[in-house]
Records
---
Amino acid sequence: MAAAGPSVFLLMVNGQVESAQFPEYDDLYCKYCFVYGQDWAPTAGLEEGISQITSKSQDVRQALVWNFPIDVTFKSTNPYGWPQIVLSVYGPDVFGNDVVRGYGAVHVPFSPGRHKRTIPMFVPESTSKLQKFTSWFMGRRPEYTDPKVVAQGEGREVTRVRSQGFVTLLFNVVTKDMRKLGYDTGPPDTQGVLGPSPPPGLPR
Amino acid sequence: MNPKEEKMKIITEEFIENDEDADVGRQKKTSKVQRQKRKKQLLTAGPQEMVSEKAHLGSRQEPGQQDLDTDTRLLSMPTRRGPRSLPPIPSASRTGFAEFSMRERMREKLQAARSKAESALLQEVPTPRPRRLRSPSEKEVETEFGTEPSREIQRTQQEDDSQSYSRVKFRDSVRKSKSKPPVPPGFPSAEEAYNFFTFNFDPEPEESEEKTKAKNRDGAHQEEEEGEEEEPRVQEGVNKTDEEELDGKDAMDFLLGLDRGAEDTVAVRPADYESVHVRLQMEKELLFIPSRRTVPMYKKLPENAQPRFLEDEGLYIGARPEVPCTNQNIMENRLLTQDPGRGWFGDDGRILALPNPIKPFPSRPPVLTQEQDIKTELETLYKKAVKYVYSSQHMIGYGDPPGSFQLDIDISGLIFTHHPCFSREHVLAAKLAQLYDQYLARRQRNKAKFLTDKLHALRNAVQMSLNPAKTPKSLNTTRKAINEYKSEIRQTRKLRDTEQEKDRTLLKTIIKVWKEMKSLREFQRFTNTPLKLVLRKEKVDQKADEEAYEAEIQAEISELLEEHREEYDQRMDGYRSAHQQWKAWKKAQRAKKKRKKQAVEEHSNEEMEEPYPGEDPVKPVPPEPTDRAVIERQVRERAAQSRRRPGEPMLVPELSLAGSVTPNDQCPRVEVSRREDVKRRSVYLKVLFNDKEVSRTDSRPLGADFRVHFGQIFNLQIFNWPESLTLQVYETVGHSGTTLLAEVFLPVPETTIVTGRAPLEEIEFSSNQHVTLDHEGVGSGVPFSFEADGSNQLILMTSGKVSNSVSWATGENGIPLIPPLSQQNIGFRSALKRADAISSIGTSGLTDMKKLAKWAAESKLDPNDPNNAPLMQLILVATSGESYVPDFFRLEQLQQEFNFVSDEELNRSRRFRLLCLRSQEVPEFRNYKQIPVYDREIMEKVFQDYEKRLQDRNVIETKDHIDTHRATVAKYLQQVRESVINRFLIAKHHFLLADLIVEEEVPNISILGLRLFKLAEQKRPLRPRRKGRKKVTAQNLSDGDIKLLVNIIRAYDIPVRKPTASKFQQPSRSSRNFSEKHAASPTTHSPTHSADYPLGQVLVRPFVEVSFQRTICHTTTAEGPNPSWNEELELPFRAPNGDYSTTSLQSVKDDVFINIFDEVLYDVLEDDRERGSGIHTRIERHWLGCVKIPFSTIYFQAKIDGTFKIDIPPVLLGYSKERSVIVERGFDSVRSLSEGSYITLFITMEPQLVPGESVREKFDSQEDEKLLQATEKFQAECALKFPNRQCLTTVIDLSGKTVFITRYLKPLNPPQELLSAYPNNPQATAELVARYVSLIPFLPDTVSFAGLCDLWSTSDQFLDLLAGDEEEHAVLLCNYFLSLGKKAWLVMGNAIPEGPTAYVLTREQSHYLIWNPCSGHFYGQFDTFCPLKSVGCLIGPDNIWFNIQRYDSPLRINFDVTKPKLWKSFFSRSLPYPGLSSVQPEELVYQRTDKTAAAELQDRIEKILKEKIMDWRPRHLTRWNRYCTSTLRHFLPLLERSQGEDVEDNHRAELLKQLGDYRFSGFPLHMPYSELKPLIEAVYSTGVHNIDVPNVEFALAVYIHPYPKNVLSVWIYVASLIRNR
């Protein structure tokens, strides 16, 4: 607004879409994008990305590892609309059609530092058994019109979803000038915790 | 099969045997004999003999066989049970000795035979044995071996003699033969056995033998089955199992031998058949089918027990898991058949069950990331040190600062009441001290005195009440009171007596102990304790005392006497009544006896019994009266015992420590050593808080008096609620070590006890240690005696008292440091604390505690259910009134706490305001990005627009709208728009599944077929089809991303320069063209013209200029009236405010102007001489016409492709149509060919934008539900057949309600003015009406109502609004036509460029006419240039017809709606037209438009336009030719009157007359009037102002023709004049 340097704070996120657990599926790739509020603007880096296709590891873990980097910087004047990363995972079905395997979203961690997040993924369900069958048969499963829907609450009440799989993300978050603008997001109790924190939104 | 069962079977068999013994004893004997015989025959007999043997057996076969069978059956047992090696025990079975001995004998014989057979077998077997070890299938076989035999046997039994099973039989028999002891651990496998017999089998007799054996086995099995069936009957046999078992084993042994001799038992028998009934019977015995019926309660409970329902008793019982009733019954029945079945049932007679463990709701499983687990195990995590919280304890006040609570423990000292080092004297001293303490305590209380006083008082009271004169009360009450008093007196007296007795005995004991002590001191000749008892005698007044004593006794006696009398009276009463009874009985007896004598014999029996129903009543004995003397004696005795005798002095013992202790040197050695031992000892205490040591006292030596003084105060700062406080007493002896003497448990003080107020308490403790000492010390836990002879032993344990005080400390400011919550009711107190919150957060029920309690009581809430605990506590609290529950309800009770600034301050914040407005989606701020952080960074001007708009809302803006009526209309429109937009904003937040999820529709057969067909489609078809472009959602777009592509292909019939000019004049000299009398000036000769001239071609050099959003592009110049450009123009598109959202794009109002110009070159060369060396020409362009296409049309159509009629002004000076075929004004089809000029265009956007989807909000409706359903059905059917054809049945009116479409059509009167214009020419009237309608401004709904929603206004609304789109125009026109008596329909279809639109169809005498309501033009059905390209449906006032013809082009369809094959009608015979009333008004009322206002407006428009033109020419001087202007002004009304027709020539002539020396170019524009802006735009687009000839002059005239209802027709004549020199 004001021409002479409006006060903004910066949020730099890098990290990676590390791996996924989809016990039933193989050869998946993922897409990520950021959803943020009106007061946010990306200043550097990529807002969207699409990963390579990965195959299951041949050990017991059966992990699907992407290690797909994320690197984006936002500027903002308002923590409202804090960026969320929206992940959508796709892969071939039995007939080789590319179908969606999961959607998920998580807020970029607020506090600077290294964070690991495991997001539960889900897919929309077909509206009927017949639909389910045909969608399976035709390889056209129900999908969100826009994956960004999963980062919003509006209109979700009309959907029914089924959970499948998890995706693990690693974030390295750096903020600038947050404290200057009066927002204290310093790490809560434990200073500089390294390592996985329990995924949010999961029943403990 | 478990061993027990087996045993049972064996027993059964034995049993049967026995029975048989009894039954056919004889036969059996013979059979046994036979068996022996057979045995002998074994070695020699062949198979032939066997058969004969069988025959021979004949009748006795059965018993014999059975006998045999029992044994053979037994044979299989060890195979199951494994080898056993129990020594044979002499049998004591019921079978009897005879039987046993017989068996014994047989066994001996058989053993001999067996050894023989064994040796034979061993010879045969050797080779296969080692193989067995290698056999791969051994395991399997072994299992088979273990379990299979019985089944196999069964089979064999069924098949009886069948040879095919011989193998099996072999196998079995071999197994039997091999299961003998010689093979110790296992048995030969069946396979092996089989191999053995198949491979190494040679001697014939062997085979036969095996066969027989098999047969035997068959029989045996049958037997076994029978045995099983009989099982239940043989319970008594259980006790002899062991013996029988052994027996069986023995029997087996010999049977093995016997088998060899069993070859003669082959029997041929008929197939066994059991009738169904028998079988069922047997099954019934064998099988148990639990009943489904409910088990009666008494069966489930122990005898005579009533069911006890714990729940009713108030105990908590969890919810039982859901089990169907039948299942439960089955289970119960099943359990009951078992013996200890009752153990499964609870007290309430139901099966015991734990509460249902299943969670009522599903939960997500935790993250299943294995690799993470591994990592987390390896990874080291930093964890902050956590303060220890006692696990089982509730931490006190999490929110409170820790450590603010303090418990002070004051330990002042310790006194041992017994210690191992006590000497005897000490023991006595301790005892004495204890007694003295007791005495003191008693004396302090002085209970005896109190009771005595009470007694006196009671007596007095009785005396008083007995005196009737003094008591005014009723006799009854006094009587009752006296009785009560008396009983009380009795009780009190008893109590007093016991107290007095106790006092006396205590005193006696004290004295006795003291005496003992004295004697002990004397005996041991030293004193250890300073104790000294002094008995003080208190003198009493002998006489008074005696009197009192006597009086007391007398009183007592009298009372007792009274008591006794009462008792006696009672007893007497009882006696009397009893006596009476007895007498009566006596009488009766006597009477009976008399009667009996008279009675007849046969009755005697019964009557004999009668006299004895009860015993003879004993004759009652009268009670003895009491004797006063006896009572007196008793009383006196008692008094002597328990009371001080009269005159006896009162003894008051006083214990003092005044005595002296004998010093060490005077004591014997043992005593000295004791004292030294005491000195060596020291004691300390540990303080344990919640079982953890928190501190300890100093170690203090034990004093000679066994007292330890500590005097220490411990301040405990505590976090946890004190659960236990313990002191541990430790004793140290010398340096040797410490021993724990005892633990003292201190009570946790009440919260009221604070330091300073706490009394010192003595808490006793004792230890169970056993100590024996070698000195005078008596030890602990060991017996000792005071007597010399050691009798009267005493065992004392170490014990003592700790004097201490525990209290809560007080803080510096006097606040006690007590945790506010006590542990027991911590939750409850906290609930109290939050009572306010609960009452507000909780539902309304909680606010009324009484109601809640009532509800709880009514609903029988289980108070013991832990789930209900908080509720119950709350109710308890509430009803007991312990807490204050506010009777008000606060909605956001924490709001104030969360307010960090005041409301005013918040409202003052610009940032906050901005955020609020944005979240409200106020248009100005809807997409506001990056709201600054600080208020100071937000400019005040941000709000200016918004505030202005708010202010202006109520002020009618007259500046933009010159006409006041328009202004009000605009305002009204604005309001409607706002309300509709609000509705859409709400609707936008309602999502359907389809909005969020893309899902394939379930394919029907046709689609599936199509898909299959597609599979077979060629990959590269010969005629490729156009593929749709990818659509782009308008989200990531920005300025410059979207381009408008306009492809201009060609044009037809462009007006050419005046044909007259072609004959002899320069075509460009339009002014000259009109009349030949004006000579052309030579300067206008141009080389081009002269070049064209010879060809005799009329020339026009048209080019197309496309202007959009003030961006202008133009094509190259083509030549001729039918030019072909084929050029693509690219125009950038900018969305308003850079907002590319769908709603924003929908509301773009911009038009695309496609102007056609004629390029004219003028030679401006001043001098002809220079012609050879230079060319000086000026390019002028003359506007010929335009096509205007709204952007919204392009946006929704995605592409516009077609030929459009060019809007050419009615008068185009200097131009004319080349082939102006003047046809008479008929509606023939040929006419249209030459009617206008056309241009072929293709317009699209790149990239293609996804048009906003229409709002499918379901509006409410007042239509009949059935009708609505029918419309839906109709539409669905139509859409199924022709998805592309428009079918409209219901529309939405301005108030947002669904209305059936035919209600809009109704004959409505056009303005009378129009009707009277051409009274005799209906066609002209129709045209005039159409023109009137077209003069109402066009405003697409999509523009006015963002979001694609078609609102239909009724005709009067339309006329009031003076704005509407095709539908409104069409409806109005159609209504007018209907009122004119025409047959008219609304045509819903597709047209260019509008897309889906509405036209009007009228039926003339022989043909149909299609009217474009917006332009007022009409077309014949077969007009090729008709913009209507397809017809979806026709709508009449009473029906809807859907086009079900093959084609939808108006050229190719039949408009005869009566043909049901061509038109599908909505109302038909099945659904007749219900006669829907119209929504249109009865009549349209037209006001005459104010002419003066129109004139005023006209002037203002002229003025504004002139100013605008001057503005557009900033670099040039703009001169206005007033003369010309006035000429034009006169001409314009003429044009209006003739509707722009047939005036051209006259007009030209007139113009030329007046402006002879001017080169004149100009044209009139005609428009409906809505606003000023479109007029300006139109003028601008003609480009008149672009002429920059220095001496150019302009003329501009405006004429407004008012039509009724404020419909204004605006004519603007613009011209440029260049003076000819």
---
Amino acid sequence: MTKKEKKSFNQSLAEWKRFIYNPTSGEFLGRTAKSWGLILLFYLVFYGFLAALFTFTMWVMLQTLNDEVPKYRDQIPSPGLMVFPKPLSALEYTFSASDPSSYRGYIEDLRKFLKPYTLEEQKNLTVCPDGILSEQKGPVYVACQFPIFLLQACSGMSDPDFGYSQGSPCVLVKMNRIIGLKPEGTPRIECIPKDENVASISTYPNNGIIDLKYFPYYGKKLHVGYLQPLVAAQVIFSANSTKKEVTVECKIDGSPNLKNQDDRDKFLGRVAFKIIARA
Amino acid sequence: MRQRKLEIYSVEHHAATDIKKKEGRDGKKDNDLELKRNQQKEELKKELDLDDHKLSNKELETKYGTDIIRGLSSTRAAELLAQNGPNALTPPKQTPEIIKFLKQMVGGFSILLWVGAVLCWIAFGIQYVSNPSASLDSVYLGTVLAVVVILTGIFAYYQEAKSTNIMASFCKMIPQQAVVIRDSEKKVIPAEQLVVGDIVEIKGGDQIPADIRLLSAQGCKVDNSSLTGESEPQSRSSEFTHENPLETKNITFYSTTCLEASTSPVGTATGMVINTGDRTIIGRIASLASGVGNEKTPIAIEIEHFVHIVAGVAVSVGILFFIIAVCMKYHVLDAIIFLIAIIVANVPEGLLATVTVALSLTAKRMAKKNCLVKNLEAVETLGSTSIICSDKTGTLTQNRMTVAHLWFDNQIFVADTSEDNLNQGFDQSSGTWTSLSKIIALCNRAEFKPGQESVPIMKRVVVGDASETALLKFSEVILGDVMEIRKRNHKVVEIPFNSTNKFQLSIHQTEDPNDKRFLLVMKGAPERILEKCSTIMINGKEQPLDKSMAQAFHTAYMELGGLGERVLGFCHFYLPADEFPETYSFDSESMNFPTSNLCFVGLLSMIDPPRSTVPDAVTKCRSAGIKVIMVTGDHPITAKAIAKSVGIISANSETVEDIAKRCNIAVEQVNKRDAKAAVVTGMELKDMSPEQLDELLANYPEIVFARTSPQQKLIIVEGCQRQDAVVAVTGDGVNDSPALKKADIGVAMGITGSDAAKNAADMILLDDNFSSIVTGVEEGRLIFDNLKKTIAYTLTKNIAELCPFLIYIILGLPLPIGTITLLFIDLGTDIIPSIALAYEKAESDIMNRKPRHKKKDRLVNQQLAVYSYLHIGLMQALGAFLVYFTVYAQQGFRPTSLFHLRIAWDSDHLNDLEDNYGQEWTSYQRQYLEWTGYTAFFVGIMVQQIADLIIRKTRKNSIFKQGLFRNKVIWVGIASQIIVALLLSYGLGSITALNFTMLKAQYWFVAVPHAILIWVYDEMRKLFIRLYPGSWWDKNMYY
């Protein structure tokens, strides 16, 4: 039996060799040079045609799009909440007030992020009346000023360390931009620590108000210079608490059409993050 | 081992030589098997020294410890029964159900999917260890894969079991009774309880309950056709006449039938049981059959080949991209998940179940046409059959003697030999016929069993031997009520046929009341009858029998004999009234009446005629490129005559012997190439080397093997298989069963077939009609073509399923389609359409092309794979991507922004991912969009699979020629695709685990232009194939 197998192995080896190059018929991998030429030419033409066709259909499809507004916005009916700066992994801020290198990254991110919000940057923007939606007809859409001082202690103006050096870090909470979203009521962001004995939260602007004048958003292309309204949450650990670790939950409140509860989407209208302040 | 002889299997005395040869060949093949066989043979050999036929009654009594008059004692019988087991054949070993089930669980692609499932679980395990909150996705996937394997396995098992069950009910044997003498008493016991040494009584019509040494019998005849293929009854008596136990007259064999035992008054033959159960000749042949390995069916080989191709592609692409993924710095776990996804995308999970359904649909269709298929895979085998080795008796012939020719008035008349026999159109006006018909009716001892008036004549049961039965039925058809004629012509004396006289005689009063003469009628061997005659009747008048008349008689006799027919001569004589007055007392012992100088009336010849449908079926097989070979145990002359009459040897072809005779030269001088036909006897065959047999099989298109033993049938089948032919064997007798088993497809006869034959066969012709085989061939070829279409259809979408993963890995697009979604295509939308292709009608006349070459015309060939994967598959992938890009673009993510977005897109912590319009998306919102993308991609594939389904209806003809609406099931399939997709999207869109969303109505139509393009492209392909057959295009594009 082994003998037979050996033989067939040798045979198959010879067959393979002949398959790779057959000297009698000049076939290489089962085809002659001419045949290979033909088949390659065929595929060149065929795939060239398919590529052209695909490009064309894609082009046709792109023609159906509008540069300013996406055709459908039904998949994002309600905005998510997100915090800033973005920790490296998960939503956990770990820092030590006594070690500036532990929070330098956060501060730099915040500064960079807040750059468009500085007063010089916004001077071309409109001062809009508070409390009402600034609906516009175009063709030119103006953006409303978001004076950075609204963020008070977290504005970086009085405290360039955004509270990190004092052990009371600032985290910015922002609502995702959605084109055409018109919040109803008086939307505000409410942040609550999980354990009130450990820390308390101050929100700026006061009460975490998000002014309606920043809505609706008209899209990146039309709404040049648009500034997203921000809410800053400053975590102030209780002096008597030894534990310097708290989970903070922020959610949109006060607006009936902005959802803050969804079983599947943990970030729809709410966000939870954790602050760990090491000694 | 070389010396071992198994002559018992052989009809010929010396057939053992070929058995030796066979053993020698087999021995080289497989050492293990040889060892096993050796033991088996050793055991057989001991019992093969059957010498009971040589022993005297006394010796037998001592040998078996029994008493011929009193029989065995019940206690002794019970002892022997316990010792030797019941007198029944051990049924062939059944594979345990659980093994069958497990085979389904691991066969085909299942192993691959099991590996995938296990990898999934392992991947989750590793993830879980590092992060207990890891997502359960891979657990779901693994479970789903396992469930898919188990479900398809259960399904395939159920299908198999269903077709096997039909067989089980079919093969139940009727319990048999035997009359046995035990404790000096006659008892009726089940034949199963017979033991060696039992004294049994046999009546005419009984099945012989075991191998029996006859002790006393008169005029006993047995039908050995199921054992040797001889259609003529063999007479049996208590004398030892031959060395060979098969030839000697004093042994009868298990499962043969006793036709007639003893003269009147109804008596019985007695005999002693010498072998029971598996130790009988039949039992040994049956065990020989079960020793023959079961070959894999051609379709099983094809499916295996196909599974290898697809699994090869799946695994190599999977591993290639695993390596690429690792090189691209993907996490190894992620790379494993990709690997699984690629395998899942490549494996057509539903296909094997679909193939099973398609085969069982064909099996059902064939069962309706009286072809019962035992093994589902055998459905296709007939389609690829290139050689049919057919038994003669009972398969090609009706297995009953029938009057074929008559000779009277110096003229040969042809009688109708068709199954109903009603159309006897020869000239019946001559006075000679009147006399002849009277002799036929009167000089005959056969009788119809009473109470059969309503049964058609040819179907009535007759008591009597085959020739007499034929004559009785013949005269009943022509003359009407023969019993009545016999009553009117009262029989006064008779001498039954015996082998020394070779004639049968009876004397009757005539029905004419004015004619007081007695009529003496006689029939027998023609030369004997002629000797006794001095006159001959021509046109109703007696003439002296001169030399020229005698010459004419001989010519006619030779001619009829040359047709392989059994010829009988008939004569009569009116006894003069003065010498033999009414009161004359005839005596059969002293024969006090003249038996010479009679008047010769005519000859009549009989044959077991071919079934009327056979010639047509043989012609059809021929035009389908199938070689029909006759293999029979019967005599060469008869075999050749039947072969000629059914067209196995066509009218204008000659054998070497024919040419020699025609040209008047010696057989050796004939150029063998001139002969198209060959008649080979078992004796010649046993002297042939395998090479000579190969040469014979290769060079002669028309071959008849005669006087072959069961062993030789096997050798012939093996010889055919060496020619790379797919061999079908048809047969009904026990002697056929080894060959039936060895053949690629064994076809047994349902009505006349023995249980052994049915057990060994893969297919059963319920109506015993050879022409059903043609139906089988047609259906088999059709299903092969249609399976090609089904597979092509199913493979196509694999590319569309695979590309998303490749592009996801390489270009980092958000995943276009999920693994579970893929399974919904493979096992949801595509199932019914791929079954629907099994209903497709043939494109052209499939019975006019050659059978496929086992090694060249594969089910899945390169062209099919290339065309499905690289042409249609790729077009489908593009179409599906178009839908996918459309969905993303219209929601805000333009195609260009999607590239290399994967890491951000898949990050759970990134909940403000910005799209091209400045909007921000949370992780879940993106996820939901991704599912919408899955659904869109799914719908894209589904829509194009509709086009794929339509184009796969034909491989060469235009769809419009085939008819869009002829196969309604295709439309059921299309409807099912759409309905399943709608249900998934709109009905189950809210179930998260399934990853489907409600897709906007317009997205269902995005891929339609691509679908139309696929159709147009394929029509173009077919057009060029039709326009330029044999061209480069044809070679590369026709699958």
---
Amino acid sequence: MYSFKLKPAHRQKRHLLCDHTALSPSASAVVYLTHRRLTSRQDLIQVNQRSKMSLTAKDKSVVKAFWGKISGKADVVGAEALGRMLTAYPQTKTYFSHWADLSPGSAPVKKHGSTIMGAIGNAVGVIDDLVGGLSALSDLHAFKLRVDPGNFKILSHNILVTLAIHFPTDFTPEVHVAVDKFLAALSAALADKYR
Amino acid sequence: MVEWTDAEKSTISAVWVKVDINEVGPLALARVLIVYPWTQRYFSSFGDVSTPAAIMGNPKVAAHGKVVCGALDKAVKNMGNILAIYKSLSETHANKLFVDPDNFRVLADVLTIVIAAKFGAAFTPEIQATWQKFMKVVVAAMGSRYF
């Protein structure tokens, strides 16, 4: 599924052509291209392939607002989510066989949970380009850690459970859907380099 | 079919006894319809499910949420017999309602999240693990008559 927008130089010219308040950006872009007798000149337009269920502007603002609220407790949430994952989905322990203690609340779990939530917080900051922003982490997970990407969904579920526990009134259905979409997009970006 | 230790059985009963079916059922089903909007395809006869507010206030959604939790109640009280309890429900969902069985796992996960929100820190990782094992068995039983 493709969406497109005019490259910056041509957006100005589009505005000269049509009252841009009456038409949506895409519609006025179509008017502009038709006026220039063009339908798909690559030098004028950027084509963005929309990934499935891409984040809308509203999703991004809901996620940013919610992450602002939880940032003080991010370390606690990360540690708890990781501990819950290791306890409720014991197969995930295989990736941490080098830790002495895998119980919730142990030192390695707390430390690593904090690392994970820090990375997720950074991802909120690059939410407009998750694939680019997470490129190095994707390399790490693909080639060094070789974590089966199915596990990203499992950790995401445990993050949602932990958020529901710590922020029961803020974690409304509307926030839930935006955060679930964000974590899914993040997981896809993390798996981007796998093959 | 499934082995339950005494500790697991008492954990699940202890969780369930604190769950108000009439509150949690509607909340969980409404949340599924909001977070995974394609599930609304099964509820076209339920009236207005066009917005989160409409879904949360829809009486038919609430009623069905209670029905789902009622069936779970039977499973909690007959944990040795979950496959048999869900046999005809599974057949109905497979052959009459044509519900994709992946939705049972989705509903189970959302129900876990709603229960976690109610219980707070009392829903410990160990309790979550046992509860999710129970959910996994129920989901498998619901999918058991699909071929």
